[in-house]
Amino acid sequence: MKTDICRIIENTDRDIAITQRLERMQDQLSYIVKDTETSKHTLTARLEALPSSISEKLQGKLTGVFHLFQNIKLFRRS
Fold first, then answer.
1. Which CB contacts under 8 angstroms, 24+ apart, belong to 60-69?
2. 3-class secondary-structure state, position 74
3. Cα distance between residue 73 and residue 63, in whole Å
4. Helices first, then strands: H and E counts in the chain
């Protein structure tokens, strides 16, 4: 009986620790998403101020760089 209670307590403690880690990871991902959206809007606003031919070329290149940056950030976090 006592060992069953000890196991339940250990499992509960483990579940709490896992839940807390998952909550921290969710908070980090939320921050990354917000930061990414802010960066995206800032870049878009700056690109719109450029002449259209330059803007289109830069936008294509920056989009590729931006996706690469996102992948690097996500890779480092995992």
1. 66/39, 66/40
2. helix
3. 15
4. 2, 0
Gap between the Cα atoms of 69 and 18, Å rounded:
29
32: Cβ–Cβ under 8 A, 6 or more apart, which residues? Answer: 73, 74, 77
Full-prediction pTM beyond 0.70? no
Q: One digit per residue, pLDDT tens: the chain, 78 residues?
A: 667 888 888 888 888 888 888 888 888 887 777 777 777 777 777 777 766 777 677 777 777 777 887 788 777 776
Q: Which two tokens mark 50?
A: 């450029």
Which tokens belong to 76?
A: 């480092």
Do residues 32 and 74 touch, judged by C-beta distance below 8 A?
Answer: yes
Residue 62 has φ and ψ, to the nearest 5°, of -65, -35
